[in-house]
Amino acid sequence: MAYVALYRQWRPQDFDNLVGQDHISTTLKNALHTGRIAHAYLFAGPRGTGKTSTAKILAKALNCEHGPTSTPCNSCSNCEKITAGTSMDVFEVDAASNRGIDEIRDLRETVKFAPVDGRYKVYIIDEVHMLTTEAFNALLKTLEEPPSHVVFILATTEAHKIPATIHSRCQRYDFRRIGVQEIESRLKEVAAKSGLAVANDALRLIAVHADGGLRDALSILDQCTTLDGGEVTAANVRQLLGLIGHEWVWRLTDSLAGRDISATLLQLDELINSGKDVRQILLEMALHARSLMLYKAAPEIDNIAMYSEDKTVLDRQSAPFSHAELVKMIQALNEAANEAKWAPEPRIPAEIAFLAVCRRSGGEADFAERLAALEARLAGGVPVPVLPNRPVLQPRPELPPAPALVSAHATPAVVPAPAGENTVEPADSAVPSRVEPAAPKIEPTADTKEAWDRVLKELIANGKRSVHACVAQGQLISLTDQQATIQFTTVFPKERTEKDDYRSMIETIFTHVCGKAIAVNCVLASANKKPASAPPPVKPKTTVRVDPADAQHPALREALRMFDGKIVTEENEE
């Protein structure tokens, strides 16, 4: 008889032997007990988690000679035929190769016929997400209202690709990844009943790298048993699958934590030369970095699977990294693993990623933490360390404090830094770009042109050329003890100068130039000039000859009043 693979030999035959999916087996058993059997089910979950096995168990439970029952006997003719795959009432359809509308039309034609041996005709459509849109549309009506003797079971690893119209017609069951301990326990049972000698650490390693799939774990175990006739050890598993032992990951992590570029590249080269897959190296390192990140965030966590369950190692190796560094490390390793999959030379993305981790920076989060610590020290009066071998710039005591800008003419005192201390690098906006002798103060009542020229020169000297280009479009028209009035001819430079940043710089410079706190007031040229009043209209002079006897007539007197006229005698006229 031909050899049968372990995962086929040990496929679960009833709900009680279904590993890691208790929430599904319990629900289906209760439905069978109460007779609430749906016409369509959707089984979704990762590969190797029991979707097809559960579908066959459900088919046996429905068609068992002693059923419908939640515990099929596996000994009657119907159960044996379903187990062997020869039942005329159970149809397994591979949607990957039968994905067209023609195949679904044929299925619709066979649905109407009654079952041959059992009570139900069961259609198991595997990888149903591979069906075309037209095939899904052809299946809709049959899936919604099938004959009473038909049950559809749809299985998929990519449930998000299933149309919503199909979802709404099915009862969905989500299969989850099987835990490491559950897989290890099942492997130990299979090895014992199959007469296989397997070391416990080998079983553990297989369970970890099965990635939640029991079928994958059984396939790895089956493959390892052919490698050596003796006991299967962890070394055999690593040799066969090209896996990286934890000790290699720990050594690489120590090198990355110490920013030792030479040791990191040498270890990577050693791993590649020993036959390890580059992408597998990157993925293993990403998994370990994830474990360090989770342990650093919540050391007491126990329910999340870690790459290494040795808490001592996790505690030691997570200490040199900050949270931001671990996040960036995981991102870099995952990106390199994706690039290595398609790169002509996969080791290049790996080397770039490891170099980036060695030369890492904490990024914005780390900078924010250091800035907050620095502010806290300054607020508490603690002296801040200064950089070695650099002078400390201190303003002269007679200069008034400046909130945002220091005058270019303020001469700083150069104090040599004590050995072993660091200098705080001054901000660009607060340090003049050149040092000149201090100029005499200008009295506010002095010539405004001299003061204005000094202000513009200060802007240039401090590197504020953009501010100078804006402010230079105006003209200082008055300067008092409290206020400087700058006149502009256009709106934009006036409004820009009135913004808080430009206004603060200019007021600070005026304060240094004049030795007093000066506020800046911006005006438009049209606002200061009163428009010249138009001359009163010249009333035309009209001479009307009237009889002297009529001079007292009321109408004439009213006309004289309205037109501001007067009576002129002929003698005066001449």
Provide a descriptive summary of the structure in words.
This is DNA-directed DNA polymerase. The protein is about 45% helix and about 10% strand. By secondary structure, it is α/β, with parallel strands linked by helices. The protein folds into five domains: about 5-175, 3-Layer(aba) Sandwich (Rossmann fold), CATH 3.40.50; about 180-240, Helicase, Ruva Protein, domain 3 (Orthogonal Bundle), CATH 1.10.8; about 245-365, Zinc Finger, Delta Prime, domain 3 (Up-down Bundle), CATH 1.20.272.10; about 395-410 and about 420-525, 2-Layer Sandwich (GMP Synthetase, Chain A, domain 3); about 540-574, no CATH class. The strands form three sheets. A five-stranded parallel beta sheet has the order 2-3-4-1-5, covered by helices on one side. The protein has a three-stranded mixed beta sheet with strand order 8-9-10. Strands 6-7 form a two-stranded antiparallel sheet. It is elongated. It starts with 5 loop residues before the first helix and ends with a helix. The model is unreliable at about 385-440 and about 525-535 (pLDDT under 50).
Quick structural summary:
The protein is an alpha/beta fold and 574 residues long. It folds into 5 domains: 6-174, P-loop containing nucleotide triphosphate hydrolases (Rossmann fold), CATH 3.40.50; 180-241, Helicase, Ruva Protein, domain 3; 246-364, Zinc Finger, Delta Prime, domain 3, CATH 1.20.272.10; 395-410 and 418-527, DnaA, N-terminal domain (GMP Synthetase, Chain A, domain 3, 2-Layer Sandwich), CATH 3.30.300; 542-574, no CATH class.
